[in-house]
């Protein structure tokens, strides 16, 4: 049976010719997504049908939440979804490193998005964008406290967005490692692992979808002030 420390070896960052396994995996997934998107044909194959279903779904979601003007963010959200999906699913393969299990990577994604939203909002609304930090109709005497609370709440978006993705994937990978250890002793655990594998594939897709859905909601601040 595997030791407790070996369960966490899958999260170790290793270096190959000056590049970490995390960096290599990120570039590898970018190449895969670009190649798949490049191979679009008039008569869709199975994988292309999945792309087209996702395309139509995100188009509708963005149009419903951000209106027509928000469709300028469609390429970004669509690409982000498949980037995260392939990172998460390929990470389920043996000996493959999963960057999204590291909170520093997911926080990098989430903070980049929130910072981008802030700069886009300032570009669009100038100083009026700061009004998001002050609830309308609130007494001026409470302004300093309310601005502080709203600022912390706004920053927590980035933290919760990144932590949610890393925590769910890390838990799934640890569960895999633990069950694999038991599988060496109890053959019945192998059947459980098959079920867990299917469950983790679903979690990998759902977490990528939730990340993109929340990103769409946050992007609304760049189009209208609430």
Automatic annotation (TrEMBL):
Q: Which UniProt keywords apply?
A: ATP synthesis, CF(0), Hydrogen ion transport, Ion transport, Membrane, Mitochondrion, Transmembrane, Transmembrane helix, Transport
Q: How does it sit in the membrane?
A: Multi-pass membrane protein
Cell compartments where the protein resides: Membrane; Mitochondrion inner membrane
What SUPFAM superfamilies does the record tag this protein with?
A: F1F0 ATP synthase subunit A
- Just give the chief location class: membrane
Note the InterPro entries from the entry: ATP_synth_F0_asu (IPR000568), ATP_synth_F0_asu_AS (IPR023011), ATP_synth_F0_asu_bact/mt (IPR045083), F0_ATP_A_sf (IPR035908)
CDD domains given in the database record: ATP-synt_Fo_a_6
Membrane spanning residue stretches: 12-37, 73-97, 103-122, 129-149, 169-194, 201-220
Where is it found, in Gene Ontology cellular component terms? mitochondrial inner membrane; proton-transporting ATP synthase complex
| Molecular functions per Gene Ontology | proton-transporting ATP synthase activity, rotational mechanism
Recorded hits in Gene3D superfamilies, A to Z, give: ATP synthase, F0 complex, subunit A (1.20.120.220)
Task: Name the protein family.
Answer: Belongs to the ATPase A chain family.
PANTHER family according to UniProt: ATP SYNTHASE SUBUNIT A
| Name of the featured protein | ATP synthase subunit a
């Amino acid at each position: 049976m595997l030791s407790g420390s070996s369960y966490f070896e899958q999260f170790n960052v290793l270096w190959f010719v000056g590049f970490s396994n995390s960096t290599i995996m990120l570039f590898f997934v970018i190449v895969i997504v670009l190649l798949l998107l490049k191979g679009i044909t008039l008569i869709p194959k199975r994988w292309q049908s999945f792309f087209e279903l996702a395309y139509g779904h995100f188009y509708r979601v963005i149009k419903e939440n951000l209106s027509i003007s928000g469709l300028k963010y469609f390429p970004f959200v669509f690409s982000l979804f498949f980037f995260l999906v392939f990172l998460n699913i390929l990470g389920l393969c043996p000996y493959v490193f999963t960057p999204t299990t590291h909170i520093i990577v997911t926080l990098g994604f989430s903070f980049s998005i929130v910072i981008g939203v802030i700069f886009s909002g300032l570009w669009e609304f100038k100083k009026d964008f700061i009004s998001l930090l002050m609830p309308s109709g609130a007494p001026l005497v409470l302004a300093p406290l309310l601005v502080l609370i709203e600022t912390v709440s706004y920053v927590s978006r980035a933290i919760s967005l990144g932590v949610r993705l890393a925590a769910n994937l890390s838990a799934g990978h640890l569960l895999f490692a633990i069950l694999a250890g038991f599988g060496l002793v109890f053959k019945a655990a192998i059947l459980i692992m098959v079920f867990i594998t299917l469950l983790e594939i679903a979690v990998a897709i759902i977490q990528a979808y939730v990340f993109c859905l929340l990103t769409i909601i946050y992007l609304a601040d760049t189009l209208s002030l609430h």
